[in-house]
Amino acid sequence: MDLQTKALHVGYDKDSQGTMAVPIYQTTAYEFNSLEHAADLFALKESGNIYTRLNNPTTEVFEKRFASLEGGEAAVATASGMSAIFFAIVNIAKAGDNIICANQLYGGTLTQTVHTLKRFGIETRFFDVHNEKELENLIDENTKAIFFESLTNPSIDVADLEALSAIANKHNIITIVDNTVATPVLCRPFEWGVDVVVHSSSKYTTGQGLAIGGIVVERKNLNEKLINNPRYEEFNTPDESYHGLIYTQSGYPAFSLRARISLLRDLGAVVSPFNAWLFIQGMETLTLRMKEHSKNALGVAKFLEAHPKVLKVNYPGLQSNVNYKNAQKYFDGGMSSGLLSFELASLEDATKVVNATKLFSLVTNIGDSKSIITHPASTTHQQLSKEELEACGVPSGLIRLSCGLESVEDLIADLSQALEVL
Question: What integer pLDDT is reported at residue 132 of this predicted model?
Fold first, then answer.
């Protein structure tokens, strides 16, 4: 089935009313048929609705549909992209363990991995996303995950998915990839050996900046990697909090099951049914929108590359870009999403240009139908030192653009007049 067809149909068999649109099941709880029925649901002897903190019919459609787009086996929706990242990591890592992350990450992810996870006793080590040897040197017996972004934000690098997955598989370690910027329309990491994919569905999935949410998707047959893997004892030993359940023997996709009935149950970072419904609406046009976002971004990137005041343009759709080869390999048709960044000579120059734009909105978001401009060093990455900013590809003169669905001629005209202030 084609991706666009999946985006319209997977996960929903019309309800008893025959509604074409997926209904919003705006409910907290569900009535059980009998006490025996309730007991069977809680014991996982039967599947069904228990409580919306664990599952919901509207959310289930979103999860099944998104998993289908990624080519995965199962998914768990969360309250935000950051909670999706947190759940994916702590589902397999505990105090005393370490994870290895690419330097080139979204600012919020850097803060979570460097500072928040440290308070949970989880160490984070970093490697350059383009240096596989550096990654392998960081691995030890306590390494539980390798985390990177398929298309990094805001440095706009394209990871070598196949090479990084091969290293992880060599050491029997789970890879987690944030595929938010590329979306499954352009890139499907499971096809290149990745184990788990996370998204902020607040971005391109909704497409209009309407709702906060996230999702964790596991690949098909991930159980085979978890079964009897000494790195992941918690999946192979009884869970005392759930009647001695052994996840890899449950008959369900173990990674998603543990994330749902342990983390979602206990931490409660659940997406609302209404937001899940909004994501379903966005998915119906995702394949169409990503083509337009990519086309507009490429047009803007070419304009900026030719501008005398611009020092550098980061966009893998440009043949001059160091990531062009990887983009052609991993992204459908070489389309490279709507996100790009460019460098000016100084913080002062960047400030002048950002403040001079009229059509671009100064917003800390991406993936909106309206175009957005951001200065990462002042906003999303403000908490980092100068050295840390340089290491993750965010110099003080860097400006990030999220190209929306306006006319590309109008976007270029706005940037042209803004650059005239320099």
Answer: 87
HSE toward the beta carbon, residue 170, CA cutoff 13 A: 12
**Could you tell me whether strands 196-200 and 174-178 are parallel, antiparallel, or unpaired per DSSP bridges?**
parallel
Strands 361-362, 196-200: pairing kind: unpaired
Cis peptide before 154 (omega within 30 of 0): yes
Domains of the chain by start residue, with CATH? 3-281 (3.40.640.10), 286-419 (3.90.1150.10)
Question: Per the structure block, which two tokens stand in for 89?
Answer: 């990591």
Please give the full DSSP string across 313-348, using - where no structure is assigned.
EE-TTSTTSTTHHHHHHHSGGG---SEEEEE-S-HH
**Of 359, 352, 392, residue with least CA distance to 375:** 352
Percent of the chain surpassing pLDDT 70: 98
CA geometry: angle at 390 spanning 402 and 420, to 5°?
Answer: 50
Distances (CA, A) of 404 to 176, 240, 323: 28, 49, 22
How many residues make up the chain in this entry?
A: 422
pTM: 0.95
Q: Which two tokens stand for residue 188?
A: 């499907």
Average pLDDT over residues 318-344: 96
- Any bridge partners for residue 346, and if so which? none
Q: Residue 366: which pLDDT band, with cuts at 50, 70 and 90?
A: very high
